[in-house]
Amino acid sequence: MKPLTVISRLGEFQGYGTSEVAFFDRYDELSRKVIRHYILILEGVKIMHEPWGWTNEWYVDLIDIKLNDAEMVLTDLYIDIVVEGNGPTYRLIDLEEYADAVSQGLIDMKDMNKHLTQVQMFLENYLHRGKVFPPKQIEELCKVNMGEEDNCR
């Protein structure tokens, strides 16, 4: 696990990662606790447990990831998944925001194909047909202590 700077629309954060996974912690005003943001690099998603004061739900952001040296830049790709408990129940949300971005030319057809495939692969790999959620990589990362409160469920 090596240190890295994570930059997103939320700001700039000190995080840690490997070539496959990363994480950073951020204090959430609504829930009044530190929320760990897990990044599955190969899947192109960022996952949070119980953000914004939610109870027993996971929030999955579809993201674009740019890596260079010790810096990771995340770009939100509009489509989100809310997972209830440990799945398999989930809801796809913000599809209208994605459609607007496509119709405004912010996302081209080639990228749209890639993004929709990303969503489908995430669902197949982690939620469909009795899969266990959250992904195993997250279980390992929640145990890493960065001097904040416990980040495991």
Automatic annotation (TrEMBL):
Q: Which InterPro entries match?
A: DUF402, FomD-like_sf
Extract the SUPFAM superfamilies matched here: FomD-like (SSF159234)
Domain (DUF402): residue spans on this chain:
47-126
Protein name according to UniProt: DUF402 domain-containing protein
Query: Could you list the residue ranges that cross the membrane?
Result: none
Q: Which organism is it from?
A: Paenibacillus shunpengii
